[in-house]
Task: structure prediction
Amino acid sequence: TITIKELTNHSYIDHQLSATLDSTEAFEGPEKLLEIWFYPNKKCLSEKNTKTLRNIEVNKWVQILKLVQCEVLSIKSTSDMDAFLLSE
Amino acid sequence: SSLFVYDHKITLKTCGTTTTLFCLEELFKIIEVELGWIMTNEQGKYEPFKVFYSRRSFMFPLKQRSIHKNWNDEVDYLNKFFANGRSYLVGRNDKENHWNLYVTDTNKKLRHGSSPDSEKDDDEDDDETLEILMTGLNSNCSQQFVCNREIKPIANGVKDTTTNINKTDGDADDEGHLLGYNMTKKTKLDKIYENNSGVSFHHDAFAFSPCGYSSNMILDEQYYYTLHITPEKGWSYASFESNVPVKSISLNKQDNIDVMRRVINVFNPKEFCMTFFCKGSSSTSFIKLMNVVEQIPNYSKRDKIVYDLEDYQLLYIRFELK
Result:
């Protein structure tokens, strides 16, 4: 179960978008699901001592998501992943 | 819609009239520039480790934009980017409720080391994804995701997009997130999994106005389940997608069949399809789900299909309310 604390531990929230977003025209339910595995696992990357996808700045993800017609409402980050909640 | 970013992979799930595939060119460009990951082959096509693209057939395909109006156009677009892609239509072609899948061959060159034994170590053998796509939600159930909160006008008709990046204050007065949190608690969507192992649990939900709901839940810092709901009468829809390893999180007290029951109980849909991806047909979860049909009360099976996709097994089952 979750606690109210979950409302105050985001790593990012777009309050303006949250307040102004109108989903009246969001008529279509079924989603498009894209999953890209660039490498089989994290271990492959640490051995090559390279940067990872999580080193890409939020600004760049915003740029990418603009092409999808999505905006970032909020982000939760953990030690292993970043979870973006998006508009639409 | 949701995006999950791991060190080595991304999952992007987008609703409405989004143009998901139009991000590919920019995505690979940024990855090349920022990370130095060169993923192209001699023909200039991208060869990442693995690509999956899937969707249920749309309810309003002609309202989609560009290539997304038509599955074949999406596949053509994907084939321009990726080497060795294959597409599947799963379910009945004469019905508007089938499911489409595009998948590329695994790029085994990206596994570290070259010995056959290294394959076992490198791939995430317990990797599994459960997806449940529901239509015709019970109206009492779908009403729980209607809020009609007031939408504030955009100042001067122009949205300020420059000031929000890296904002981390997380004020609790954000009404969309607060209502999303309340919806989650009320519908018990935070109790889909039995967290007997006591791992960390994070939650992020949003209630759209006039209606609709999206949420991301993170377990053990690394697994997610996500829900997206459009409750409008006439085209109501809800989706659940998860990569949570139910067996280990629940300490063997729960399985995916129980997860399915809990999800279905929240929405009571007229119809739903379940897809399950895992590594190898000997997976316990796969074997259990193969026999799920008799264990979902009030629903009858309409289609059941198994695909052997190179290193993955796919199980698709479609149910209708009796």
Summary: Helices of chain A lie at 15-20, 42-48, 58-66. Residues 58 and 72 of chain A are 9 Å apart (CA to CA).
